[in-house]
Structures are given as C-alpha cells and as structure tokens.
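User: Please write out a complete single-protein record containing the residue sequence and its fold in token form, without commentary.

AI:
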Amino acid sequence: EVRMVESGGGLVQPGGSLTLSCIVSGLTFSETHMDWVRQAPGKGLQWLSRITNDGTGRAYTDSVRGRFTISRDNAKNTLYLQMNNLKAEDTGVYYCTVFAEEPLGQGTQVTVAS
C-alpha cells in the first residue's frame, strides 16, 4: 500500500517561510517522479512543482517560481517543499503526489494571514 504523510504546515504571516515534508512508503521512491499540489479554499487542485526521481530536474508553476523550492532525500524517502515570501493566496491544503496522480495523503494546511 502506497502511503504519503505530509507535515510542516501552519499559520504564517505574509512574507514568512515554511518547509513542508512528505514521507512516502509503499513504492520505490528513488524511481518515482514526485509533485506538490495544493487546494485553496473552494477551489480545485493546483499543480505547483515537480521533481524527477534523481532530483536533477525541477519545474514550477509561474505563481511560485522563485519563491518555492522542491527537493528530495531518496535515502529518507522524503520529499520537501521550501516556501519563502509566502502570500495570502498561498493558503490551502498542500499534498505530495506521485507524478500526475491524485493525492493519497491527508495533506497539510498552510494559512498565510496577518
């Protein structure tokens, strides 16, 4: 059974930073491209970022490029999302997913507000 457990969310002021983590089990993590997606209140899933299985390739949606950094530690089966200069529009539930698949975990809530 594939499991993904996201953590690291919270309440942060505009301009602040958070680092999200996702521990993955039940698949060969080092062979799997991974995504971060989010769901803002009342909206559908939005793709944010992708990283190749070996970490050498990364992609971002325009709204987060330059502020968010995706990374991974294959030895720890863990995916990360470093988020800087957070904005109110970054509020939502964040999920890690296998490349182009639906979220499996519960996600972690990020709220950006003063």
